[in-house]
Backbone:
């Protein structure tokens, strides 16, 4: 089954404690991205990757890092989380930038 | 002004009603227009995909794009309780932009 898998689904952490949210896709897609979804603001892109070892900033990249060492994996790293990063996070993949995006189930992150 | 504007609702309609969801945008470079449906506690799923202007129909769903007015619409005919979800418009050229989403409830 074609899917994008994110882990964990829910995470509560404390300010400053580094964390990683994993994302994996099994569709051999070139393009992967991370979004955060906040009430009234919709989906905002954090980082994207057009291929292995090629990543770039989206609209709200501050406080986040990513890596794309393999085509299927695109982890999101918060080196020093802060409460304003409390949000619902989605990983997405697509064949190319403008084609259908397949989203993961989401990760609900709370930073206290 | 946001690049993509979408009324967040909420919108509540009786079963069987025709639903109209709309987005406006400011970037005339957008060429690809999409509607995603997001159920509670799930990721968005693509519902309709349109390139440039025109209409596209798929079952009970019709997507319309009017590039001259920078306006896109999604119509749902004979709405069902299972259509209750948040609907997100999205559009792109080199960058993908999403609307804030409209929350729809279809009451039996």
Residues:
């Amino acid at each position: 089954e074609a899917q994008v898998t994110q882990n964990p689904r829910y995470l509560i952490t404390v300010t400053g404690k580094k964390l990683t949210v994993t994302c994996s896709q099994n569709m051999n897609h070139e393009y992967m991205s991370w979004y955060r979804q906040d009430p009234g603001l919709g989906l905002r892109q954090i980082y994207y990757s057009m291929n292995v070892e090629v990543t770039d900033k989206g609209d709200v990249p501050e406080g986040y890092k990513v890596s794309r060492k393999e085509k299927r994996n695109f982890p999101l790293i918060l080196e020093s989380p802060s409460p304003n990063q409390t949000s619902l996070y989605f990983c997405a993949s697509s064949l190319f930038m403008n084609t259908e995006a397949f989203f993961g189930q989401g990760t609900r992150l709370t930073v206290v | 002004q946001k690049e993509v504007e979408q009324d967040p609702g909420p919108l509540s309609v009786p079963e069987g009603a025709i639903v109209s969801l709309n987005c406006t945008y400011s970037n005339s470079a957008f060429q690809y227009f999409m509607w995603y449906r997001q159920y509670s506690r799930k990721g968005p799923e693509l519902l309709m995909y349109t390139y440039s202007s025109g209409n596209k129909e798929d079952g009970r769903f019709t997507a319309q794009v009017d590039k001259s007015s920078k306006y896109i619409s999604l119509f749902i005919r004979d709405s069902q309780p299972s259509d209750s979800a948040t609907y997100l418009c999205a559009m792109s050229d080199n960058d993908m932009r999403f609307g804030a989403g409209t929350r729809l409830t279809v009451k039996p």
User: Anything to note?
Assistant: Chain A has a mean pLDDT of 95.
